[in-house]
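Repro case for the chain-ordering regression, as requested:
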Amino acid sequence: MSYELTENVVGLGVINQENVEDWDIVIESKSRFFDLGLRELWRARDLISMFIVRDFITLYKQTIFGPLWLIIQPVLTTLMFMFIFGKLVGIPTDGVPPPIFYMSGILCWFYFSDCCKRVGNSFAEHQGLYSKVYFPRLVIPLSFVIFNISKFAVQLFILSCVYAYFVYNGCRICPNFYLLLLPLLVLIIAALGLGLGLIISSLTVRYRDLKYLVDFGLRLLMYLTPIIYPISELSFKYKVILMLNPVAPVIVTFKYGLWGQGYFNWLPLCYSFVFAGVLLYFGILLFNRTSKDFMDVI
Amino acid sequence: MTTVIEVENVSKQYRLGTLGTGTLVHDLNRWWQLTRGCEDPYTIIGQETGGYVESARGQFLWALKDVSFKVQRGDMLGIVGHNGAGKTTLLRIIARITKPTFGTVKIKGRIVTLFETGTGFHSDLTGRENIYINGVILGMSKKEIAQKLDEIVDFSGLEKFIDLPVKRYSSGMRAKLAFSVVAHLPQDIFIFDEVFGAGDIAFKDKAIKKIQAITEDSSKTAIFVSHALDNLKKICNRGIVLNGGKLVFEGQIDSAVEKYLQIQLQKSNFLIKRAS
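-- result from build under test --
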């Protein structure tokens, strides 16, 4: 396939005609386990962008609200959280207006869990395509995660509108320089979502019941992430336990940067970064391995 | 002559019945053993009976067994065999959709495998958008498609409808659009699985002519799998015959078809004998 085309190959007919050992594609029974296949992925960048465009065009075709869904979902969830956890349960919000407090966490979490679920479903969802034509299999999960960043960006814009509204009305909150870490935070969440999603997708090919476990597990993990409660209220011991969840430091840092109070520590953030890297690495290896023969299993 | 595809001792084993060892613990153990290069601790290969192998833990089927052949540049190779002879499995391995249990396949050049036309078509997208998506999935770059877009649209004869969503197309129109993309693919090696016949008769002629044009270009190589023996004889110069996962003949296409018919005759004679 064309992704195998290197400059070396273009000149093949002229220069290397005699060199019989110069193959472009070698298909073997044993897969090289530690090969991430990133070069092949880079050559398939056209395909990645095509899938992103396709997602854009088709997502809101024949829907009533169209792109408004991007806003409706987090806004309604925020309102619900404000009512249940703010009014009924009475959990404090660090002195920050509740809408901003809840929404900031919800957006990050949704980005993570959406990536996780969709990527985790990629073998099942694209079985038809995968069984008909070869392309680097990572293209589909990756294009989804990138596409989702744009969704996240739109939602962040809504959040900043809400933020501006409260500041305008005299609320004394002010972002600090840690907000500049935002690109890094997005990167970590994307890597976590993609990595975990890839592992899930590889495992659910064989063990389908894991899918239910994933939904359930993600919901539990959400409560282990400081979205609806401020971490500054907790004792040191619980802080440590909570920060073991790699999503938690990201959200905590985001919130700290957003309104300049609360809790921040470099150590959990570094842990989160390393964790995301390792998770993504093994996720890709497992996914590549599974993709070579999942057709025989599914 | 340059060899562009080299298939070496390719075997493919399928397990019938239960898939996986059943438990996560066993699977993890097996995975660990296999990655360390040890033998699968849960395979117990028993007596071999035909293509089937029965073991204590289920049945195995060798869909392909020790298949080796070479394809030279410019060759038009036809693969014939009965249903279940391993034709599609072989193509799937060459197409990298599934990997062989043993053996290697080496390929030189850009290859495209066509198990169906219109892969990746999305019914909400317009004809033009689908040309792009289908083309990129089949291995063209966006630039290549942009250059050939007018040609593709022209060939399909769907200029008027090209900006309509594909869901408004008839199935014939879809087939035309899909084949038009295939006809303009830039690859050097084509693999077709049962693709004779798309659209109405006028378009079918056009399609076969286009395939013949590809086949006459000596820099292009193609492999065909089909039951349409007449078409194969017309288009191919070489042929291989698969039977029960084994390669039983390799040579000129006419002799290959003859050999295939001979096997078929033997099989039906055998069935008649058994019945009487």
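Ordering looks correct now. Confidence is low (pLDDT under 50) at residues 1-20 of chain A.
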